[in-house]
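Supplementary Note 3. Input sequence used for the single-chain structure prediction.
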Amino acid sequence: MHQYLREYLKDSRFRKTMLGIALPIILQMLLTNGLSFVDTIMISRLGESEIAAVGLANQMFFLVFLIFFGITSGTGIFIAQFWGNKDEKGIHHVVGLSLVGTMVFSVPFALVSWLIPHELMRLFTPDPVVVQLGVEYLKVIAPSYILSGISFSYAMALRSIERPRIPLAATAISLGLNTVMNMVLIFGLLGFPALGVKGAAIATLISRGIELIVLITLIYSRQLPVAASFREYLGFSSALVKKFFITAGPVLLNEIAWSLGMVMYKVVFARMGTDVVAAANITESIQGLFFVVLMGTGTTAAIMIGKKIGERRKNEAYQFARYFLIQGFISGLFLGALMSATAPAIVLILNMKPETIRIVRLTLMAIGILIPIKAFNLHMIVGILRSGGDTAFSFITEFLGVWGIGVPMAFLAGLYFNLSLPVVYLLVGLEEVFKFIMTGLRFRSGKWINDLTRKEKTESV
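The predicted structure, written as discrete structure tokens, is reproduced below.
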């Protein structure tokens, strides 16, 4: 570890490249999570029922969001390697696969959220007030899933070809608009009616439409490498489709399994009480602000390592992976300590019941303990194993961790033993220990490095 740390500190070329890619991604994620946090604070001023309703209703978007992340992470593996291999036509074909994949999932999710919102909300909570508020939110927000799917595909493609500033610009414009509209529509400013949670949904829907428009305009006006006609997008070969599903299929299954596990956690929290699920929603929103650096460097790891593999420089890919693990773990130590230390001050801005605030404070301190190992696992699974095409191993490890350890622990600790939310989080965190051991052993074996473009360069033409 000490030797690798010295090598990392000396490699200025690596650090310069990493920061050039990571900083725009981190800033974009900071904007996204920052706005989510502001939304949460605004809605929390309406009451515990409102914040619980929006948090539970957004589980549908959380599910589809992670499916999008699975699809685009899978396509990002290919795009980064095609970018290193200078195969622009291959990039177009993979972007086409990504767009088709996100539409396949976003349209059904949107229809279900719009047509049967009552049934969806009752899966989470029997509270009639929370159910009705959630229904109002779902019926408005549903079409945004389709808009987000297209945006996700283009944003990941741009990051994978080292153009992260384009999605950053689109997000900045969209989220600035969303912030203003939230204030106006939730509380009824500037002569508009106070629409509460429905106003928050309207603001989000409009902002996601604006984000997509800005993104497409910038891509095609500048004729970036991901810009193509529909015919070019859909010109992928059966060989590429087969290779894509073999590699990206486990990524998608990984995200589905993980996201369903997170939904199960919310089911447990909702059964523990409205105050508890409200506290969990606020805690996760705050945690997102601390996690943006780790998500940014994890995504950067996938791009840089994937490109090196595409360039046939496997030794450099392995060296980059070691650097990212060091950087990620050290960042996790710092961010975890910061979250635990600042938790008492953070909760001062909340306008909720004293018991809810107390739960949030203690839960933030508990999560702070877990962040270093979460950081290691994030960089290992999202940034390293996936970039090397080792997606099946990642899926098996994630599935066993969440469903073999995390979900059973949540139900036992939260519903059977009636333990507090902070303790439930710590026990669920045992899944992270399992993933830490499994992925560490896999990394040392070197079996995770696979060149996915060697045969695809001619097949995609």
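Residues 456-461 have pLDDT under 50 and may be disordered. The radius of gyration is 22 Å.
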